[in-house]
Design goal:
The structure holds two protein chains of two kinds. Chain A is mainly β. Chain A is about 5% helix and about 40% strand. A five-stranded mixed sheet of chain A has the order 1-30-31-32-33, with no helix packed on it. The N terminus and C terminus of chain A are likely disordered. Chain B is elongated. Chain B has a five-stranded antiparallel sheet with strand order 4-3-2-1-5, with no helix packed on it. In chain B, a hairpin with a 3-residue loop joins strand 2 and strand 3. Chain B has twelve helices and five strands. Helices cover about 45% and strands about 10% of the residues of chain B. Chain B is α+β, with helices and mostly antiparallel strands. Classes of the chains: A mainly beta, B alpha+beta. The interface between A and B is large, with 57 and 46 residues.
Chain lengths: ~525, ~240
């Protein structure tokens, strides 16, 4: 009886409040209200009921099966607000009770021709959810029912755009990025009014001719209008500086650069924007004139910590090109640029902290052996930063590819191809001040696709390339718990605490698993006992 | 930007479409439109049609036909009185060309011409094979590699020189009782090991229960990946491609 009363009150609370956008500034452990859990992109939880000493006793709390024929595997980070989880597949959204795994509602989008390659989650504002569709629409759904409130077009699917990312909510802005590099398009970030769906501003990832940055493109050519720079992974935000940080994707045409001589701004860059106007404040380009498909969309992780003895507002990125970057996020000034994974295409950095590319490692007609391959030293999967260990945990790939320039005449779209030769994955624990690997944990042959979560319980949660869900010791990388979910772990683990019980959620192919300590153990030891490490 | 497995699927789809006979449309296009739009549709004095919104929304010539037949006098494009079949052929060609441009695999590299790959020096390749590359420690050009160039297409031969996939590790598992099993590795992770024995049966153990010895036949090739220069690969290719 007592339990059902709590549920009723919870439901009323959700109905009345939804998610106050100011609560995103200080998320509570009974929520996971935005893609990265908070604005910083750390994916670090202060919860420690599940910790090094007891994680071996984790037991399944519930499992949710996605019963749709079109499932491509869970890649989304669930949101948790007021006891309800919201997660996605390309055409589908579910609302599920976070304590029991019971479905509240399911929304299915219309049949569409967009690329169904992934769906990474939702944004939430008050009682509304924001969902990007494969055919590049942005939908506003009622969080109580899944009913569509409005539907706006982001970009034309017929031109080759698609959409996968989780929108970011800042104040009264719904920020939406875009995907599509098979064709020569241009990337952008759109800001919408959460109530009406009216466009507030658009930031174009490619400057217009004559604007700053346009000098990094050939003059008297339309290359600049079709130069790529997609925005397909959710950015991060510093409320004190009121700056939005976003990684941009590769230039087009892909793998061949002869029709676009120059650095090709603002592709393969980390950009800082004013979220109220969409104006560019600073940028740092991690791969000038990329010809290897190494975008820079990897989460820009925001950390306030010492660097060389001085307190700093830092931005960390382990980038797809194999370099680890530390920037001063107040101005974009590079503090450190060093490889974290084996690479053979660059022998150092220039005076601006940007990797210098060896032109002999560009794709060629006869084939060029390059490390990393086109999937990259990492890819979109979210890393995690643990402020207690000072380590950035990154799904890292040692890999080699043969890159071919196949273009004849004028290249468009993909001008070449990359043949994947060999790869092996590891979770790397990177010291944030040096970029050195403290430990690495082998995740098996191939490219791993699991995101990472770390907790104050001294744990790192992720998945390996065989479908094992893993809990590792955050200090040493030792395996403390594992379970095979029966399918690839391509999504992002999250954690939360409800009614004194901490849950860890990990998606495996079409199943979302919820793990917790046995209730008996928690009852016997009490919260205090399980909280202590 | 994308995972490999997806690109492969996309590539197959694209080649399927392009494999249809679009040659007639290509000729028709080059003849009627190529002067302004380029023989491949990628633009000349007229716009690039592969990036055209109208072309991308066209179905079987329903939008393209209107423009072709009426022209765009304001932009200096004359009208062309083409038949329905000719319009459809042009549309098929443009759609196929656009899909090809958007294909990550592009022209199937397996059919890649030998001349493009033959940039190395066969003598240098031979010296590397018998010397620094230590290839001759495992391989012989009159043994396992005899006639290798007749067995593989040039592109496949080169990629196999770079890294030959497909050889399973050999595994020996010793149980606590002392009983041993040997065979090809079927599965291996941090926790489990599986092998197929000589009779064809698959066995799986927890690694913590047994002693596991693995012999990786590709270990030397994995080391080579980090040691190879592009010159080494191209020289080796130039040498091995002579082994007809």
């Amino acid at each position: 009886m007592k339990l059902s009363l709590i549920f009723v009150l919870g439901a009323i609370g959700a109905y009345a409040q939804g998610l106050d956008p100011t609560s995103l500034l200080h998320p509570t452990p009974d929520s996971w209200p935005t893609y990265n859990g908070d604005y910083s992109g750390k994916r670090f939880s202060s919860l420690r009921q599940i910790n090094r000493s007891n994680v071996g006793m984790l037991t399944m709390a519930w499992a949710f099966q996605i019963n749709i024929a079109t499932g491509i595997g869970l890649k989304s980070t669930p949101l948790l607000v007021n006891g309800t989880l919201y997660f996605t597949e390309p055409d589908d959204v579910w609302a599920v009770d976070a304590r029991t795994g019971r479905q509240n509602w399911h929304y299915h989008y219309r049949a569409n021709e967009g690329l169904h390659i992934g769906q990474r989650g939702l944004g939430m504002y008050k009682g509304r959810l924001y969902f990007e569709t494969p055919d590049a629409h942005l939908l506003c759904l009622d969080a109580k029912s899944g009913e569509v409130q409005w539907d706006v077009l982001l970009a034309d699917v017929k031109l080759g755009y698609w959409a996968t990312m989780a929108p970011l909510i800042i104040g009264n802005h719904v920020l939406a990025g875009i995907s599509g590099d098979f064709n020569d398009l241009h990337g952008f970030i759109d800001s919408f009014d959460p109530e009406t769906g009216k466009l507030q501003w658009r930031w174009d990832a490619l400057p217009k001719p004559g604007e700053p940055g346009s000098e990094t493109w050939p003059a008297n050519s339309d290359a600049i209008a079709h130069g790529g720079g997609m925005t397909w992974i959710t950015g991060t935000y510093d409320p004190d500086l009121n700056l939005l940080y976003w990684g941009t994707a590769n230039p087009n045409p892909v793998l061949v650069g002869n029709t676009r001589p120059g650095d090709n701004l603002y592709t393969c860059s980390i950009v800082a924007l004013d979220p109220d106007t969409g104006k560019l404040v600073w940028y740092f380009q991690v791969s000038p004139h990329d010809v290897h498909d190494w975008d820079a969309v990897q989460t820009p992780v925001l950390v306030d910590a010492e660097f060389k003895g001085e307190p700093h507002k830092l931005l960390l990125q382990a980038s797809r090109n194999g370099y680890y970057f530390v920037l001063d996020r107040t101005n974009g000034k590079p503090l450190l640029s060093v490889p974290y994974e084996e690479i053979n295409w660059s022998s150092g950095v220039d005076s601006r902290g940007r990797p210098t590319s060896n032109p002999e490692k560009d794709p060629s007609a006869a084939g060029t052996l390059v490390a990393p391959d086109a999937i990259g030293a990492t890819n979109w999967m979210a890393p995690s930063f643990n402020p207690e260990t000072g380590l950035l945990y990154v799904d890292s790939h040692r890999c080699f590819g043969l890159y071919y320039d196949l273009s004849e005449g004028r290249p468009e779209g993909f001008g070449g191809t990359n043949l994947y030769l060999w790869s092996r994955s590891a979770l790397r624990a990177i010291e944030y001040q040096t970029g050195k690997t403290r430990w690495e944990h082998d995740l098996g042959p191939g490219h791993n696709w699991a995101s990472v979560l770390s907790t104050a319980g001294g744990l790192v949660f992720t998945g390996d390339n065989h479908g094992n869900m893993l809990a590792l010791d955050a200090a040493t990388g030792e395996t403390l718990w594992h379970a095979s979910g029966g399918g690839a772990v391509q999504g992002a683990p999250i954690t939360y605490e409800l009614d004194g019980q901490q849950y860890v959620l990990i998606g495996s192919n079409n199943v979302l698993y919820s793990w917790a300590l046995p209730e008996k153990l928690i009852a016997e030891s009490g919260r205090g006992a399980t909280e202590s490490k | 930007m994308l995972p490999a497995q997806f690109l492969v699927v996309t590539g197959i789809a694209v080649h399927g479409i392009y494999a249809q006979d679009v040659a007639a449309g290509k000729r028709q296009f080059a003849q009627t439109c190529g002067f302004c739009h380029g023989p491949d549709g990628r633009g000349a004095s007229g716009p690039d049609l592969l990036r055209s919104s109208l072309v991308s929304h066209d179905v079987n010539g329903n939008l393209i036909g209107e423009v072709v037949r009426n022209g765009r006098p304001a932009k200096g494009m004359p009208a062309f009185p083409l038949s329905d079949a000719e319009i459809k052929a042009i549309a098929d060609f443009l759609h196929a060309e656009a899909k090809l441009a958007a294909s990550v695999t592009q022209r199937n590299p397996s059919e890649y011409p030998l001349e493009k790959l033959l940039v190395g020096n066969a003598e240098a390749g031979k010296a590397y094979f018998n010397g620094a590359g230590r290839c001759s420690a495992c391989h012989s050009v009159i043994g396992d590699l005899a006639h290798i160039a007749s067995k593989y297409k040039p592109f496949d031969l080169q990629t196999r020189i770079a890294f030959p996939s497909g050889a399973d590790p050999k595994v020996t598992v010793t149980e606590k009782s002392g009983k041993q099993y040997s065979g090809d590795q079927v599965y291996s992770d941090e926790f489990l090991i599986s092998l197929r024995d000589a009779q064809g049966w698959v066995h799986t153990w927890k690694r913590s229960d047994v002693k596991v010895e693995v012999e990786n036949p590709l270990a030397a090739h994995e080391k080579l990946l980090a040691a190879y220069t592009d010159r080494n690969i191209h020289d080796l290719f130039a040498y091995l491609v002579t082994l007809k």
